[in-house]
Amino acid sequence: MSESVEITMADKIDKALSEMAANKEKINVSQVAKRLGVSNSAIYKFNPEKIPDIKTAQKRQKHKAESITLGTENEKLKKEIKSLKILNSQHKALADEYKVKYESLWEHIQQIYNMYDEVLAERNNFAERLKHLG
pTM of the full predicted structure? Predict the structure, then answer.
């Protein structure tokens, strides 16, 4: 004699929720009803106690998706920060290199002005000597 075990609609809803979560399918009352081949109103009317379970599964799925998104964004931002730090150090090195070059250039410019001042002083002395000769 075989006994048949009757599976209730509530059990079917639980099973559908588990499968949908495992398969990463969108979870809401409409999708659960569609999966079970019943109308939305049938779930609301005959199994209202399951609505909170469906809503909880839906929220859990949403939070998991948000968590994954945030984790992915976090990783992207970490990579971008690392890249910017490298770029920043390269720019600092370049700035230091230019600083050394410009200091050297400034020294040369000062030497040229000093030489100009010396040449100008010699010219003025020469002009004064010519004045006294003539």
Answer: 0.49
